[in-house]
Specification:
About 45% of the residues are buried. The protein is globular and about 55 Å long. The chain contains ten helices and 13 strands. It has a seven-stranded parallel sheet, sandwiched between helices. Strands 7-10 form a two-stranded parallel ribbon. It has about 325 residues and is an alpha/beta fold.
Length: about 325
């Protein structure tokens, strides 16, 4: 199989690239490196079966040119920082919705038959049923990020209907693990490295969140590709548990041997659009034979171990787009 991966130099994308290559596939990565890191692709570069095109998903011509001959597109490129949506109101629209439209149009032109899309549990807004199943009615959207991803899902369904493209839409919980670069675990870790005796927390610490280890996430994607064969397959992907933010703080502090004072700001939620409770019903993907290996606590500790480790080198060269 020849795979085309947008966001290949990012956290999830680079881990996905390594797994695809380990399974014997050819991979072409596509990334503008605005948030991705070439260092994450060192292992991929060494295989001889990987190429990287430095390009932007807002450039549809480059997309269609580079994905020709691919069997599947793994579309992970996006703005993933939910917190600043209300301050940068076009960013989610352009990078998530319009970017996805460009990817789909490039697939139509290049004749690529299958797309795997990283959506989010945030599309459920503030759900009224927990754990939240895939067929839960959508309430009013509460974040620009969730709204942009929901619009992208609709585009995938429309292209699947019109052009016989098969879609796999995964509604993720937050993902943790090696190469993790943004989110509350890394924010707390950086704060505690700089100020071991004080920690500022957005929200009241009682927000309930679910998390998942990155390798478990990728295994779930592969399991669905093998066993789910609908025209459009929509699957929640996450753990069968959740934790309060305060609990994750305690795990991090215990791991670092610290007892900081905590300063809570922002009321019951950390930012505009921050859902105070995210917990997904993953019965559908469990029925395909997948379950996560690591608990949320284990995923948090694994992430802290990674953040404490030696800094990866940055000696990976950029590869030609026609490699």
């Amino acid at each position: 199989m020849k795979a085309f991966v947008t966001g290949a130099a990012g956290f999830i994308g680079s881990n996905l690239v390594d797994r695809l290559l380990a399974d014997g596939h050819e991979v072409m990565g596509f990334d503008n490196l605005s948030t991705g890191h070439l260092a994450f692709l060192e292992q991929a570069d060494a295989t001889g079966h990987f190429g990287l095109c430095r390009g932007d998903i807002l450039d549809p011509e480059a997309l269609s040119r580079e994905m020709r001959g691919s069997d599947v597109v793994f579309h992970l490129a996006a703005n993933a920082d939910v917190r600043f949506g209300a301050m940068q109101t076009r960013r989610d629209l352009e990078q998530n919705t319009i970017g996805t439209a460009n990817v789909l149009e490039a697939m139509r032109i290049a004749g690529v038959p299958k797309i795997v899309f990283s959506s989010t549990g945030s599309v459920y807004g503030e759900a009224t049923v927990f754990p939240t199943p895939e067929d839960h009615p959508f309430p009013i959207q509460t974040s620009f990020y969730g709204a942009s991803k929901l619009a992208a899902e609709a585009l995938i369904q429309a292209y699947a209907e019109a052009f016989e493209i098969q879609g796999y839409i995964f509604r993720f919980v937050s993902v943790l693990g090696e190469r993790y670069t943004h989110g509350h675990v890394v924010d707390f870790y950086k704060q505690l490295v700089q100020h071991p005796n004080q920690l500022k927390v957005l929200g009241d610490g009682h927000q309930k969140k679910s998390y998942m280890y990155v390798q478990d996430c990728i295994s779930g994607i592969f399991r669905a590709l093998e066993h789910a064969q609908e025209k459009v397959n929509i699957l929640n992907l996450g753990a069968d548990e959740y934790c309060e933010v305060n609990a994750s703080i305690q795990w991090i502090c215990d791991e670092l041997g610290l007892k900081p004072t905590r300063e809570y700001t922002g009321g019951s939620r950390g930012w505009v659009g921050d859902n105070p409770f995210i917990f997904l019903d993953c019965t559908r993907i469990r029925a395909l034979g997948w379950q996560p290996r690591l608990s949320i606590r284990e995923a948090v500790i694994r992430t802290i171990d990674y953040l404490r480790g030696p800094t990866a080198s940055t000696g990976v060269s950029e590869f030609s787009c026609d490699k």
